[in-house]
Fold:
Amino acid sequence: MNLDDYLHDLKTLVGIDSGSYDAAGVNKIGDFVAERLGVLGFDVERRQTLPELGDIVIGRRRGTGSRRILLLAHMDTVFASGTAAARPFRTSGSRAYGPGVCDDKAGLLAGLYAVQTLVAQGREPYGELVLCASPDEEIGAPGSRPVIEALGGQADYALCLECARENGDLVSARKGVADLTVVVEGRAAHAGIEPERGANAALAAAHLIIGLQELNGLVPGVTVNAGVIRAGSRPNVVCPEARIEIEVRAPAVRDLDTVLHAADRLAADSRVPGTRATVRRGPITPPMEATPETLGMLALAQAIASELCLQIEGAPTGGVSDANLTAGVGTPTLDGLGPVGGDDHSETEWLDLTSIVPRVTLLTTLIERLSERQ
Structure:
């Protein structure tokens, strides 16, 4: 691959604001991806997912074999419009900086350059190679989730192009996430004249939050966070309603189920007479578990890395990505296959320039070797 070309393309992409709700900006990235895939002979499809979001871009190319390989990357960032101009792409020493430089514009380009290498060299042992560029990963993929799950269900292997960990590790497991909203209903009353006629929903919510906090560690690796609490309207009114927004993360499906049922039991057992709590579950993002198949993919990647004089390990992380969705439908999935970077979602987000060529080479070879598996 040509590193100068890659860096030119990276500067172009980082210079485009593409926050998740900036549909026009995301679609500019989509234009870039679609054009590159088209030049490489891919059949390109663009779909609108939700009206307020950009398009999902899907490229398909037939090869000479039978295995179906899915590459996942995302085009959106967490940054507001205007950030690209305020903090433009720059390099300093061995690092590049800019909004989305690591998460995930470098990974998206890694996929395009790996594909370009395979096509240019006639190394296409896969049955079908699919590259999916999603517009909404940073907000939990509300529009693209069904598309990614469907593509995952058709694939033999999924490779997610989030950048590698700061120490170069790949991602072999990701926690699943469930969002809960608990609505506590009480009864209003004058707090000074007749408080006994009220039922304080805020007090009931406080007891519930303490119980939820104690669920941390119920199962190893599980985290429970009551992050948003709203209650009451006036200090002289016994609070009639409270709302708690909670996030639960767990490394395995069974662990997530255990904690969700424990939260239901806590909510059903109000500590304040006259109050009751209702738990509403949002969409659940399944864990990406370190299955034997995923660990086999990791071992293959490590063998290839050794040939390239790299040493890599697999690491679990609490964050989620589109890889959770393909793993959730049972597709062997490995993540962290972009270049090395760090400080995602911050003003100091960076990319290790020296990692680009070896990581794209690793990805290219991994696609080829997985395609040749019997």
User: Anything to note?
Assistant: The mean pLDDT is 96. The radius of gyration is 23 Å. Residues 101-120 form the longest helix (20 residues).
